[in-house]
């Protein structure tokens, strides 16, 4: 066998071993515990939407996948079938903008009884946002959220 083929096979084998090791590590990596994580940033719900509207790309790059804390007023609490709930916070623009919080089902104490209009603080992982052209409205999404007491 010529030397070029031997070197290529060795490089390929090393690459496969390294790739397999990285895949194994990522598969077995534990979830980040939001309740124990210090928030990367803290926002008022309306200010978060306003900042996204001003410079979407920069803010998204800055907070994507980060634990952030959001303070706001409860618009509605929607229970789901998995023992969790989605809480929507008012974020301005005459009720069209909101922050949608997928609550962590392991930390539901007091969530389902939150009254509309109550001011709360929540930590969660920013997962994205959606802009609706027809209504000129924003929805910001956080998941694995927990109430901050």
List keywords for this structure.
3 helices; 6 strands; elongated; 149 residues; 30% helix; OB fold (Dihydrolipoamide Acetyltransferase, E2P); 2 domains; alpha/beta
List the helices and strands and how they pair.
Layout (H helix, E strand, L loop, with lengths): L2 H26 L12 E4 H10 L1 H8 L3 E13 L5 E6 L7 E6 L15 E14 L4 E11 L2
Helix pairs in contact: 2-3
Structure commentary:
There is one protein chain. The protein has three helices and six strands, in the order αβααβββββ. It is of the alpha/beta class and 149 residues long. The model has no long low-confidence stretch (mean pLDDT 88). It has two domains: 30 residues; 114 residues, Beta Barrel (OB fold (Dihydrolipoamide Acetyltransferase, E2P)).
Intertermini distance: 68 Å
Quick one: how many beta strands? 6
Poorly predicted runs:
none
Largest sheet: 5 strands, mixed, barrel
Q: What is the third-level CATH name, the topology of the largest domain? A: OB fold (Dihydrolipoamide Acetyltransferase, E2P)
CATH superfamily of the largest domain: Nucleic acid-binding proteins
Looking at the overall shape, the CATH architecture of the largest domain is Beta Barrel
Query: What is the CATH class designation of the largest domain?
Result: Mainly Beta
Number of helices: 3
Structural class: alpha/beta
Approximate helicity band = 25-40%
Number of domains: 2
Instruction: List the helices and strands in order.
Output: HEHHEEEEE
- Read across the widest sheet, the strand sequence of neighbours is 2-3-4-6-5
Strand fraction equals 35-45%
Radius of gyration: 21 Å
- Write down the overall geometry: elongated
Mean pLDDT: 88
